[in-house]
Amino acid sequence: MIKGIGIDTIEISRIDRIFHEYGDRFLAKVFTPWEQEYARRWKAPDARLAARFAAKEACMKALGTGWSRGVRWKDIEIIRGAGGQPELSLHGEAKKRLLELQAEKAHLTITHSREYATAVVILE
Description:
5 helices
């Protein structure tokens, strides 16, 4: 049974602008150390950062909280599964909300083009 669905699309240029304006402060506030390291492995990390930003937003929508109820950016971490696919790892208030919803699985898909990054989260 589906417990929540969330989707988000963001312009990659928006994340690029924020990153260039705030630098490491932005990264430290929004992304876990693993997410930062992963993005920096790529020649153009902005698409990877934007995709993970969209995934965090989509997850909040699926959880039904938005950025309220004490959920922080880094409570939602986008990791790589055994096959290289993106997976959600929830911590703190995000994990607490997942348990409240009695969701057993969290599905994530992310994609990006030259201009946009999109993520979909389904909780069941």
